[in-house]
Amino acid sequence: NAREELIGWIRSLGVTTIHTGHAPAALISGQTMIAKTTGNTVDEATLVETAMISATIGDRSMESGGKAPGTSAKQAAMLRELLIKAQTYGSKKDAPRDLKLETMKRVIDREIPLLVTAHRARDIMTALRIAKEFNIKIVLDGVSEAQMVMDEIKASGFPVIVHPTMYRAGGETESLSMEDAAKLMQAGVTVALQSGYETYVPKTRIVLFEAAQTLPYGMGFTEALATITIDAAKVLGLEKRIGSLEVGKDADIAMYDGDPFEYWTHCVGTMIDGKIVSEIVK
């Protein structure tokens, strides 16, 4: 909803582009999209209609009801089965149209990545094995036990979206560490931070504050800023258009009255596509 009040709120905080979609739960929960935080309609705001396909390997998809896998082994088997079907989709001229397989075929053809939420080391490894088996692109999401399989993540070359630094850990996220983002980046992994959403006390976290929380745990200022600017753009495949101030890129700029990572600093102006969309007049 382009006119949702929350969009205006995050725009006033300097957020110019968002990657959004279905929350992690089902084995395959749907498509994600990328949009600017301006525009009167969704069509006007949209940058990428289908950015990734959201998948979950772990406790949540095993317990999501309906055709939930129930076990880790069945989880992997069901995902492989779907990808195998997508490989052969379209080979028969008279085959009925299947929108799910049609979309998954784009993953098989490496047009779009599979966004895989996986927290436990075993689930991260399942995602990496499936990516290798089908030669598909994936983006790892969550990775609470990343430090246990750091070498494997690095060797894969896949980027990671880390869950909020101040996220309440528990269950499959019990190993979540405030050092995760820094450790991954130091290993040479491209890292982006997300704001996330908590249903326990419904709120969307301020991603700038989440990035600031990485500073005491091994991340430098420039690196922390990159997780929500240029490196985030790289994860989304839009680094040639957004994420940094360079000639030829979209003029998306957030202006602050001090260190952007300090709590008392305010965003005094936001520009999107060269137009001022939010400002504090002094």
Short note summarizing the structure:
By secondary structure, the protein is α/β, with parallel strands linked by helices.
* Amino-to-carboxy terminus distance: 31 Å
Total discrete domains: 1
Per DSSP E runs of 2 or more residues, the count of β-strands stands at 13
Mean pLDDT: 90
CATH topology: TIM Barrel
Strand content: 15-25%
Order of helices and strands: HEEHEEHHHEHEHEHEEEHHHEEE
CATH architecture: Alpha-Beta Barrel
Biggest beta sheet summary: 8 strands, mixed
Please give the radius of gyration in angstroms: 19 Å
- Under CATH at level 1, the class stands as Alpha Beta
Helicity level: 25-40%
Key descriptive features of the protein:
alpha/beta, TIM Barrel, eight-stranded mixed sheet, three-stranded antiparallel sheet, 32% helix, 20% strand, globular
